[in-house]
Structure formats: C-alpha cells, structure tokens
Design goal:
globular, mainly beta, 39% strand
Length: 783
Amino acid sequence: MAEELNAALMQRAERGTPRGAASVLEEARRRADSDQASRPIWRGGPAIAVAAALLVLVVGAGILIALRLLVPDATPTATVPDSSTTIATTTTLGPIDAGAADRVVEVATAPDGSLWAATQVGVVRWDLETGSPTVFSEADGLGGREVGGIAVSDDGAVWAAGRSWLARHDGKWNTVKDDVDLPETFGDLAVGPDGAVWVAAGSDELIRVDSDGATTHRVPEAWRLAEPWTFSIAVDAAGTVWASTNQNGVLAFDGEWRHFGTENDLPSDVVGNVAVAPDGSVWIGGDGLYGDPDGDVPAGGVLRYRDGVWTVFTTTDGLLANHGQVTVDPTGAVWVVHDDLPEEIAAALDVEQIGGISRFDGIAWQLHPDVGGRRAGTVSADGTLWLPSDEGIVGYDGTRITRLVVGPDRVPPLAPIGNVLRLDPAEELGPVRVSTAIGEIDFTTWVVPEGGDLPWWLGETDHGVLGVFYPEMDLRWSSDGTTWTRVPLSMEPSGWAAYDDELIVFGGYGPVRRTWDGAGWAEGDPVTAPRLDRGAIGPKGAVATRGGLVYVWDGARFIEASRPPDPSLHPEASASCGSPGWSGEGIMANLGPMVATNDGFLVLAARNEADWYKDPVCQPLVWFSPDGDSWTVASEQSPFGERAFVLDMAVVGSRIVAVGGLSGEEQLDPPDEAALWVSDDGLEWQRADLDADVLWQVAGGTRGWVAIGHHRRGTVALDGDMWFSADGLVWDGPYERPPGWGGSAGMGGVAMLDDRIIGVGEQWYVMPSDSAPAGVVVGVFVD
C-alpha cells in the first residue's frame, strides 16, 4: 500500500498538475482492497484483558570495576566467578496469560505458608499448597486500588499500604484511620518484632502504628529527599528501623537517628534496598555506578552491617555483579537479585546479560546467572525464592523456575461506593458569558467535593464525555460535565477510543472493551491483545498503537499491521524541535496523535522520544490507512514545516485540525509561536492564523471548534486562554479561560458536545482565596 500511494504521488508530481487528493486516496484504497480479502471489523469481539500500570523500581546497571573488600570475612573465589560455582536452571518459561493482578510490586510470606502480593489492583493471597489465588480489592476493605507495599507480622497479621491509606488483615481487611494521617506519597512499610508497623512516606515521615495509635518521627533536615524519602525499610530484632536511600546512604532509627555514608566506609551514598537477617545483621543492596570521587573507596557492592562493622561484597568475592537487591531467608542465607550482568562476567559464563542471582550461605557465593530478576522478594519455608515481576510471581528453588499467575478476569469489580460523583457550582463566581464566533456561551465553574478526585484529560463520545480523575486515575463518564459516573475498570487508562456504542480503553496488560447500554458503559465482549497505549475507532474499524508499532482489529483480536508506518522514512528531529520543557531530539520512531476519519485512519509519526500524552511529535510525517493494516506516507517531507511540533489532533466530518507550535532556534528554547493546521484529506495542510504562544488541545463538534493554550500578556506571564472557530480556518480569540480551567502553568483539557463545551485544567486550585477548589468548567451555548 505504501509503495502504491507513493507511486501515485510521484506520478502526480511528474505531471506537474495536481491530480486531486480524492483520486490518490481512491487508488490507495483500491490497491489495498486487492491485497486483502476483507477489512477488519470492530464490533463483535471477545474478552477483557484487565490490567494495571505500576511504577517499577529498578536498580542501575552495574559497571565492572576492580573492587577491594573493606573488612574481609569471606574468601574471594575469583575476579570472574568460576563456572563451577554456577547452578543452572532447568525450566524455560513460555508465554503466559497474565492479568492486572499479575503486575506485582512486592511479596511477603506468612507463618501459615501463604504468599501475599501487593499489586496495582489489590492484594493477592496465594495458597502455595493448592496453587490457588484469592484477590482482595477495595470491596474487601482495602483503602485504595493501588497497593504499594505488603508486610506480615509474626502473628500472621498482614499489612498493606498505598497512597494515604493503611490496612490490616487478620481474617478480614480493616483500614486504619483513627490517629493515622498518612501522606499521599508512599515509600515502604515493615513490621517490627513487637507487632508494630512502620510506614515511610512523604519527604520526611517515619510513622509507627500500634494498638495505641500512631506516632510520627521526622527525618532530620540534612537527610530529607524528594518524596518519598526512602523506598525500602526493615526492622531488626532490637526494634531499630533501617532505611536505605538513593542519595544519602543508610539511616537507622532507634529513638535517635544515625547516618552511615561514605565517611563510614560505605562505597557510595547511593545504595539499594535493605533487609535484616536472623542473626541481627543488616544487608543493603548495592549500586555499581558510584564510588568515592577520590578513588579511595571502590564503587558498588552489597553491604553487610554486623557488630558495628560494614563489610562490602563485590565481584572480587564471587558476586555476579556489584549491584542488586537483597533478600534474606529464614536460615540467614542472602539472595542478591541482579537486573543485569557486567559484559565481562556474562561472556565468561556464556550467559546473557539479562540478570541473575547470587546466593550467600555465610561462607561462599553460589551463582545462578541464567535466572532473570529485577527486584527483591521473599523465601518460603521450603527454600523457594519468590520474586515480584510484571508478569506474575517468579519462584526459584535452586534448579527450577516456576511462575504464579492469576490471569485475566480475576480482579473483583470496583467498590460501588462513590460510583457517581456530583459536582456543585461555585456560586460565588457566577457564570461568565462570552460572545464567540460560534455563539454566546455561559461558562460555570463546578467544584469537586472535598476529598474527591480531580478531573484531568477529556475526550468526546457519542454519549457524552470521558475524563480521567486524579489521583486514583478513575475513568468517568458524564453527559453534562456536572455528574460523573465511574466506568468499570480495574486498571489505570493510558488512553481510550470511542465510536457509536463501542468504547475501548487502553493500558495495563491489554485493552478493555466497554459497550453503551443506554445508561452507562457496561462490560463488553473480551479483547485479545498485547498491551497498547492508545488507538482510534471509526467507520472503517479500529487501530491501536504502542511506541512505533501499529495493531489492527481483525474481528477477534488486535494483531500487528502487515504494512505499518516505516520508521526509516522519518528524518531525525532537529535539536530545536520541542515544546516548553521538553526536547524532541532523539532517534526512536514514535507514533503520535491519531484520528479515525470516514476514509480510514491518519497518524502522525516522527523519530523522537515523545510521549504521546504530553510531549510533542516533532516535524511529523502523515501516514494514511484505509483499513489500519496497510499504511502509506502522504509525503516525504513534513507538511507542518521545520521546527513544528504537534500536540493534538481532532476530526469532524472530513476536516482535521492539528495544534502545536514552532520551537525556538536552540534546543529547549520556548516556542516562538503557536501553530494550527487544517486539512480535509490529511495530504495537504493549510496553516491558520492564531494569536497564541502555544496551543495544547483542540476539540470539534457540530458548532465548530475550540482550542485551548496560552497567550502572553505583557513580557512575562502566560495566561490560559481559549479560541473559537466555525470552520477551523478563521479563529476568534483569545478569551481568558474562566476560573478553574487551568492557569498560567496549567495545560488543561477540553471536549465539545452539541450543546456545551467542557473544560478541565491542571491548576484547578487557582481560585479566589474564599472559594473551594474547582474541578470542571462547563460552557453552555445560550442559543
């Protein structure tokens, strides 16, 4: 298809007279139809692959440096470990059918032999004897959907924590509320020998919770970090809390704070996680990148603190790598999980650099170089090491790898409490009437109730608008912008697409389908697909993208397009191409904004490192497909011109509008001016004049178009503004956005329905001091 349309465009150029976009598209469609027996059909597909996203904490890659043992108490084996110390695995894991509950953050074992996992969508309890999981969610008493940490006390009580909540399970879940004021930013939790639970959160808070309530201890100013101040804490037998940091070495708290850093012979102030052994020794994961700038102290290594002495173990002593996360089992053996291996060691052992495990029994290190892993885990009574991963829990008993997978469709539905969110008008503000090129509009600011989630980005459907509400990342639907109903999901959406009665939500491990039932978006047929970031649905079917890949719906599942956009055709974006705060320089092929038209699909693509939801697509080429499977580039040069970046694109009928701007001459310069382009076929684009400094988003409907962005007033401030157009070519504005719809630094979002415009903004809190925080601005057409 790409070759055919390129050939057609070349013939058009050689003749010297325009052939007409319609004939070019018709020829492309005809040739595509001859290649394929049938087009993909969106409706009538199966299954829901429910999923969640999770921020995964990883350790930095190790650099093999000659290291010395600071206080030796183990005999070095060799600079490069002898392969005779290697225990090879015997099981190779094949493809798995993972679900949302298999994106595991942390694991812990209980005295009854069960295995507990913190995941993005709840807590999972595994019965290791039967291999059966139980999934707990908000409906079971958890304080939130995302679980950031899990810990088990000696009496079998299980503690779980997330953003601003802590829950305890001793037969059932109970959220701890009284006398516990947890920050939103969660770091880690651990249980002490007395049964008290310790929570590290915020930039400086270490909170102890027991039957008497909660006590907060502040980290001293000199050791505070960005939130959270630590990602790993552990409590030793004496009740001392140990914490590792990624900038300030190791901290210990026993009523008084102590600090250990390079001045205490640590090889670096950048360390990994922390674990406590039965003999009272403290183990700290190592980082292989940093050392003493004077060269007196070697970089990296795994650390042990015992009897007031720090010992550093490195590759010289038998470790596979000088970095890794540590786990201590009940026997006192130490497992170090390396996320990758130094090139020299991997070559010497004839294994890949994907990672491995080093196990220390107190005398020597045993090496397992072909066992992949990324994070510390836990060890069950039978000696199996269980590691969290993004595809279930990985078990390793020294010779065999197994995996525990919950699978799709096992996550309970969200708790119905708070399913409908009703906003209140900010009456003290009053409506703001604006007379625009598309009619008179009364804008009213609506307030999210105290403690409620706040709205963020929006999108239109045939049945109202959809919006993500932060921080829980709920997807909610509204017909009027004032009452929002939660769409049943168990994952954080990265994007969605809607057409007619069909909705597909992207994110997690795979897309989820929802169908309009007359009153809301109910569960639809399942979808079989890999993880996808966003897509488009229209009269010609459905397509989706991830990074530089395109997937097309074939009637039963999403599969890779047979003729996707060719990244080799994209020139590398210039260093100056970027929007405020971001650089578009890079070499990675990226697919940006995509729309479905009556003729097929359009997607903008460029060679840069842009994230589609915030970063620009710089000097993009335009790719067209009549069916989503066969893609053709419209021209070899970007129709938007040099230094152009595009942030958003919308379509109404056959008209397409793209918004963005032109960057400054130098890298990271702010944009010189905003820019807006219009096309009726995706091949030829006309730039429209608009008095703006940068444009963030555009929306269209039966009334016309609305764009939002910023316009400079004076020499400093950039104010949030809006523009209107009846045809997309001639624009009216700027008009200052009403209170609550973003501010001088807030991007904002916008959607247009037949009778109203709905806006949300990053700075919804920028309001008069005597008013409540605003959530949504609704503009109703007066006529």
